[in-house]
Fold ParB/RepB/Spo0J family partition protein.
Amino acid sequence: GGRRHAALKELVADKAIKGFTAKTKVDCRLVPEECDVTTALSLAENITQAPMNAIDEFEAFARMMEVDGQTPETIAKTFGATVAAVKGRLRYGLIHPDIRAAARAKVITLDTMKAFAEHPSQEAQREVFEALTKDGGYLQAYTVRQALKSRGVQVSDDIGAFVREDYEARGGAVAADLLEEHSVLEDAALVETILLEKLGAAAEEARIKLGFAWADAMVRYDYATMADYGRVYPGPIEPDEAAQKRIDEITAELEKLQFEMEDEGLEDGAYNALYERVDALEEEARDLQEAYSAEDLARSGVIASWSGGQVTLHVGLVRPEDTVKKEGARGSSASPTGEEAPDAGEITYPTSLVEDLKTERAMALGAAMALHPEATLDLTLFKLVSDVLASGMSVTQAIKIDARKEYRSHAKMDEIDETSLEQVAAAHEALDLSWLDDARAPADQFAAFRALEAGEKAKLVAYATASTTQSCFARDRQRDSLMHAFEIEIMPDIRAHWTPNAALFNRFKKAWLLKILGEDLGLAQEAVTLASSSKKEIVAFCDKLFAEPFATLTDAQRAAVAAWCPPMMQTAGVACDEAEPAAETPEPDSEVAQAA
C-alpha cells in the first residue's frame, strides 16, 4: 500500500482536511505470507498501476514458481502474457543477487545482466562476475557468455543433447534450472571426453566400412592444422556383373524420378523427398564405380568432428609424416619387413589438450613480448606499416593488431601455471597510464600520450601487442618465417614463462607419465618404483618435481627437468635436420618399458 500511505500523509499535511492527524488509525488488511496469491497480488498491482522495474518482475515471476507453486502457463494466464514471455523473465529471476544489484545500480547494463542467465548456478555466475570486474573494466554481454561457456554446456545445446544420456549415466553434475531446457552440464571436461569418444566411434565405424588405415576425432576441425595433411580420392573402377546390374537399375530409377520432379504441381514436401532419393541413388552409383586404391587406403584415414550440430566425417586424409615417407624424404623409416611397427608407448595428445596447450603457449609468448618492449615495438610497427604499404598477404597472422584484446579460452584456466599471468600483470603495473583519462577529450589524451618518453611508449605498445597473441604451437619456418625468428629471439626457452604442473599431468595417461619420467627426464628408477602407484600419486610426484627440482637429482636430471615441455610448446629454435637424434626406445624387457 505504498501509494495509499503516501496519500494519507498528504491528507495529514493538509490542515484544511478534517479527521486526519498523525495519530489517526487506518484499517489495514494483512495478507498472510503463506497465501499462494501474495506474490500475484503484489505483481498484478505493480504491473497494472505503475511500470515495474524489469529486475523486480524477473524476481517476482521466479518467486511465484518457487514459493507459490505456479507454472509458466498459470502465470501467463494470470497476467495476460505469453508463456514465452514468462519463461524469458523466469531465466533472469535466478541471477546472483550481487549481479542484479549491479544492474540496479547501472554498473552493468540489463543486457549484460541477462547474459549471466546462460548458467543456472549462482556460484558460477558470481565467480565469472568477480573475475571479469576485478580490473574495473567495462563488462560486455558477449564477454560474459564466452566466459560462462567454459563452465558447462546447456542441455538444449546440440552437444549437450548429443552427450547427455552418457553424461548422466557417468554421474556428471547437472546444474538444474527452473526450466529444463536451460539446465547445464557442469563438467565441461567430461562433456568433451564423451563427445570425443562418440566422434571416435563414428570415425572408427567409417574406417572399418571404407578400409582406411586409421581413425581420429577432434571436436572442431582445425583447418589451419589440417593444411599440412594430404588427401586421397577414390578413382574409377570397372564394376563387376552384380554391380553393373545395380547401376542399370539406379539409372532407370533416376530417369523416372527426374520425370516426376518436372511436375510443376508438386508440393515442396514431395519435391524434397524426391530430391533426397535422387541424392541417395547417385551416391550409391558413385560408390559402385569408384574406390580407393589399396596403397591409398594403407596410408590414409578418417577424422570425425562436430560441425553444424552433427558428426561430420573427413575421409581420405593423409598425415604429413605418411606423405613424407611415401615420397622417400629424409626421416622415413621402415622395419626390415617393409611394414611400420606402431610404437605402443608413443604419446598422442588428445584434441582438447592440444587446444589448451596452444592457449598456454600463446600466453607465454605474450609474457615474453611484454618483457621485450623494444623488439615487440619493432614487430608491431613493422606489421602495421607493411600490412598497409606492402602488396600481397599479411607478413604474419600470429598477432592481431586491431585494437582488440584476445579472449583466452581454456578448460582448466583456474589450475594452470600462473607465471606468464604474473609477468604480464607486473608489466601492466609498470605502464605509465597518466595519459589515459576518460574525463579528458581524446585530443588531450593524445597530446599527453605523445609527450611520453620513447621507452614508455614502447612498453605500452608491447603490452597491447602481447594481449593479441593467438593460440599457437611452435612456428613453422616455411609457413611463418617472421614469427619463427622473432620467437627464437624473445622466447628461446618457454620455461622462463611457463612451468608444467598438475593441471597438465592430470590430463596425461599413467603410461605417458612413466615414459616421460624414465626416458625424457632420466628418472628410470623412479619410474619403475612409481609403476605400481596410482595415477594420482604419480601426478603429485611430477608436480612437486617440476615446482622445485629435488636436491637428489643429478646435474643431467636437473637440466632435463628444467628444460622439459611438450615438444610442440617449445620455441622451434633448432631445425629438424640439425636436431639431435631421439633416444632409442628401450627394449621391451627393460625395467622402464615394463613399468610403462
Notes: The first helix runs from residue 2 to 13. The first strand starts at residue 153 and ends at 154.
